[in-house]
Specification:
Length: 117
């Protein structure tokens, strides 16, 4: 109702801070599931960050984690499409080199076991 009020601005700052904390928490849970060798569970939490916290500092790391898990699970098409989406959303992203390294690890369709060219 009073967007120019100093309390409104402070409330917005606090909301951003708390959303960042929640995103970091989800990211931490995803990483813990990776340590526990539960990639499917980790994927759920990476997706939660991507779906619910796109406005936070954790978003790029969630993309990287998701691609790493998808490669581990041999879900190469999804990993590749996630890399493409990252590059579209963050053409100058801080983690673009890491995403490119991961993309290079994805086997070409014809080289995959049981895959067709």
């Amino acid at each position: 109702e009073y967007p120019q009020d100093s309390l409104a601005r402070e409330a917005e700052r606090q909301i951003r801070r708390l959303r960042n904390q929640l995103a970091e928490r989800e990211l931490s849970i995803a990483e813990q599931y990776r340590v526990l060798r539960s990639p499917q569970s980790a994927l759920i939490y990476y997706d939660a960050v991507l779906d619910d916290y796109g406005d936070t500092d954790a978003i790029e790391r969630a993309f990287v984690g998701k691609v790493e898990v998808l490669i581990e699970m041999e879900r190469y098409d999804e990993a590749l499409s996630t890399c493409v989406l990252y590059r579209q959303l963050f053409p100058n992203g801080a983690l673009r080199e890491r995403i490119e390294q991961l993309r290079e690890r994805i086997p070409a369709r014809g080289a995959r076991a049981g895959g067709s060219p």
